[in-house]
Specification:
Strand order of the largest sheet: 16-17-18-19-21-20
Distance between the termini: 72 Å
Oligomer: single chain
Number of strands: 24
Shape: globular
Largest sheet: 6 strands, mixed
CATH architecture of the largest domain: Beta Barrel
Radius of gyration: 30 Å
Low-confidence stretches: 77-84
Number of helices: 13
Mean pLDDT: 86
Length: about 500
């Protein structure tokens, strides 16, 4: 099915939407200040080797030194640059690198909190169709491609890689989106990757330590590399400057994608024109409405994502079984789209409405797998469990949309619920009694949210007065708008 790609660019943020039949299928966001380092290649300088931990710290010019473990060190041999043979023991890190040594490294994990970036000396460079392994001679094919086609694709790739005209040397892995590529397209990608690697090596010889040798492509460039294909109708961008930059990049590396580039000149923001911002707002909510009247409830946790299907107001035209079946069928397509839209990864558990008939279960599962097959990210789906649940996994490629755009609520701290005003009142009464047994102030002053204070002055006034008489101390109230619904303070006067 044909799709269109819309790009909204600003100096602080780039947003990309893939629209198919008027519905947003994917959203990608990259913020200038939060752009990751994964894939970047640096000429680092070893600052410290720790034999006891079999690791080292490498200065790559960041605020904190990056971490390199022995398992991520590419091991050289006396016979040249051949990779380690199978089952060959890894040399201790202190025998491979030393303090002060310049070292070409690639970031494989971004810095998190107080931890520095994680590095590898096993460098790889990603192209549109292939991944180049300059230190290896291995030729492989993505596991997402059907096993029956891998041997033929590998044979084609071996012939192209071994072609003297392509320069020779290095290993390659065919990416999933290169499955239907022609020999000419693969040869172009091989040439591009070898040209990029030559530039990286030249920089390593010319530049000082802690220099950036290669930066992974920006989101705009990745759009041309990864998202544009035969099914793409147009790529519209609302920035004249970035449109020119993309044209220049495309002409050099992806000529076929350039003809689909269009500059959006409308007065209204491009995302407003196509209702993308409203779609983003809906993608951040728990509830997703179905056209039939049913709805989904999406809950994302640390370990997994749960999706619950409900009939809602849909009563159907024939019988209850048909109502459930139609709702589940529609939900299967919507869930597949929501996974892409929200970029939900890891374990996903789907609770379809219970179906009595086995043929209905099989049809819903077949529809679900059919819709997931359109996903560029690898998914694995199981059947219905004994409890009627469908378990699946979707490979994590980047942060989910919710994690990128949102943070836990400062009031409920991500729980999604707060105590009722009455529960807070009773917490306060218990706390005042506890304080009265330890201290002997003249007065207790309760500072709480207005709703709690109102309840104390109305329905809970008798309990407050009774406690005051019991402890023999006056209790005054003070409403504070800045406090959350279940926050309070007790001041001893």
């Amino acid at each position: 099915m044909q799709n269109d790609i819309l790009i909204n660019w600003s100096p602080q943020e780039t947003r990309v939407a893939v629209v198919e039949n008027g519905a947003v299928q994917e959203l990608h966001v990259e913020r200038t200040l939060e752009r990751g380092l994964v894939g970047n290649i640096y000429l680092g300088k070893v600052s410290r080797v720790l034999p006891g931990m079999q690791s080292a710290f490498v200065d790559i010019g960041l605020e904190r030194a990056a971490f390199l473990h022995v398992a991520d060190v590419w091991q050289r041999h006396d016979n040249g640059d051949a990779p380690p043979r199978k089952n060959e023991p890894q040399l201790p890190i202190e025998k491979q690198i030393f303090e002060g040594q310049p070292l070409m490294v690639q970031v494989i994990k971004d810095p998190i909190g107080t931890k520095g970036a994680r590095l590898s000396t096993q460098v790889s460079v990603a192209g549109r169709l292939l991944v180049f392994l300059p230190q290896d001679e291995h030729v492989g094919v993505s596991q997402k491609i059907a096993q029956a086609e891998r041997d033929a694709l590998r044979a084609r790739l071996v012939a192209l890689v071994g072609d003297k005209a392509s320069g020779g040397g290095g290993g390659f892995i065919l990416r999933t989106n290169g499955e239907d590529a022609s020999d000419a397209e693969l040869a172009d990608d091989i040439a591009y990757l070898r040209k990029t690697w030559a530039s990286i090596r030249a920089g390593a010889q010319r530049l000082p330590a802690t220099s950036l040798l290669h930066q992974d492509l920006s989101l705009l460039q990745r759009v041309l590399r990864d998202l544009v294909g035969e099914q793409t109708g147009s790529v519209r961008i609302d920035s004249r400057e970035q449109f020119a930059a993309l044209q220049a990049y495309g002409r050099e590396y992806m000529p076929k994608a350039v003809e689909r580039l269009q500059l959006y000149r409308g007065e209204r923001p491009i995302f407003d024109l196509f209702g993308i911002d409203e779609e983003i707002a809906r993608a951040l909510g728990r509830r997703v409405e179905l056209k039939s009247g049913g709805y989904l409830i999406v809950d994302q946790t640390e370990a997994l994502t749960t999706i619950d299907v409900n009939t809602g107001g849909y009563v159907g035209a024939r019988n209850f079984d048909e109502t459930i079946f139609k709702t589940n069928l529609e939900a299967a397509g919507t869930i597949a789209r929501q996974l892409r839209l929200r970029n939900l990864g890891g374990i996903v558990v789907v609770d379809f409405i219970d179906m009595a008939r086995a043929d209905h279960q099989e049809a819903v599962l077949a529809e679900f797998r059919k819709q997931l097959a359109r996903d560029r990210v690898k998914t694995v789906v199981g059947g219905f469990s004994a409890l009627g649940l469908v378990e699946m996994t979707r490979k994590r490629t980047r942060e989910s949309l919710a994690h990128m755009l949102c943070e836990p609520c400062p009031t409920c701290h991500g729980v999604g619920e707060v105590k009722t005003a009455r529960s807070v009142c009773y917490d306060i009464l218990r706390e005042v009694l506890r304080e009265a047994r330890q201290f002997n102030p003249k007065e207790f002053r309760v500072i709480a949210a207005p709703k709690v204070v109102e309840l104390f002055l109305d329905e809970e006034s008798q309990h407050l007065a009774g406690l005051s008489d019991f402890i023999g101390k006056p209790i005054s109230l003070q409403a504070e708008n800045a406090l959350g619904p279940d926050q309070y303070d007790i001041v001893l006067l």
